[in-house]
Amino acid sequence: MKACVFTLGCKLNEAESASLMRGLEECGYEVTDVLGEADLYLLNTCAVTAEAEKKSRQAVARMRKFNPSAPVIVFGCAAQNNAEAFAAREGVTLVTGAMRKDKVLQMLDARGVAVETEQTFCELPMPKRTRTRALLRVQDGCNRFCSYCLIPYLRGRSRSRSLASILAEARACEAKEIVLTGVDLSSYRDGEVGLDGLVLALKEVPARIRLGSLEVSAVTDELLAAMREAGTAPHFHLSLQSGSSEVLRAMNRHYTREQYLAACRKIYAAFPEAAITTDIIVGFPTETEEDFAASLAIVEEAGFAKVHAFPFSPRKGTNAAKLTDLPPEVKTERMGRMLSAAETAERKYIERNVGKVFTALFEEGGGYTENYIRVFHESASEGGMYRVRLLGTCSGGATCELLSRVE
Description:
This protein is an alpha/beta fold. The chain has three domains: 2-114, Response regulator (Rossmann fold, 3-Layer(aba) Sandwich), CATH 3.40.50; 133-352, tm_1862 like domain (pyruvate-formate lyase- activating enzyme); 357-406. The chain has twelve helices and 22 strands. A six-stranded parallel β-sheet has the order 2-1-3-4-5-6, with helices on both faces. Strands 18-19-20-22-21 form a five-stranded mixed beta barrel. α7 packs parallel to α8 and α11 (289-301) runs parallel beside α12 (328-353). It is globular and about 55 Å long.
């Protein structure tokens, strides 16, 4: 019997799916995450934007084209948000939500809608093994309630995994790099242990540790000192969303443009070659041309290594959805300018690092340095970690010279 676990959305979803894949293997299934012919389909959905939810619904139809008689189990954020819409689709046998993914494996033969609201940290099976990069779930839920975001309503309030459980999985992991993931990683806390304590505790693990997305408030002297001591990868995905303090206030983001730039300066002081990557929403309802100019300017001021830009998408049930949306043509035009600025910033970041030596872990199609520069070399083997020297920019990243293999 073959099972397909298809995932949309964030790295936390990917981590949860990897655990379910491992659990299905233990149940005797041949498992894949590539959509194709299978006897059972599990769909891990996303609802961060209306487009993501639409793609989640469309995935059901794609599955049925491969095997119209195979049962389809739908779970995740989009299922939590609109269970009935999935339950009404032909071929869907079970719809669960985002809260209790630990119960999915116990319900493979169940039928109907079983969406729960219980908010606990769900312990899942050890993820499917990888010798390259693994995602490690440490936190779920969010208390921030940004005005544009549904996720706190779908995944619930912030809750953290126990330090002992995290360390047990990290020690058993065979990957050469471990990425800590969560909805709001910055809020991690187990008793008196915060994110800095978690980083220090993982110092003993023989893998490169990389942090997932962070909030400005997480950039403290304590965290930076812990990262230096533990040798954590100097890559900070520091969520921005807008370069305008006025728009940030309307977004309920709890920091200003100046505070964001101060956090960037603090990072560069501790890690001069750090990569700061970010997300920016273009065309928030209150965004004026002046506000957008501030977002364009901060891309250069912050020295971003990479920018993920998205047009604003109103989500029913959020405060921002009550505001008057900007005309589509305004958002489209601004997106074009933002994507151009993002491309320039990424090229400049790579150029600043040409000639320098880093450690790169290669996966299929290329590798990543500790500061998250995508590198390519035709002789590098998948799963290999190498000392490399950057030679120059190329499409999608940088070319490099292999200096030595790191075992």
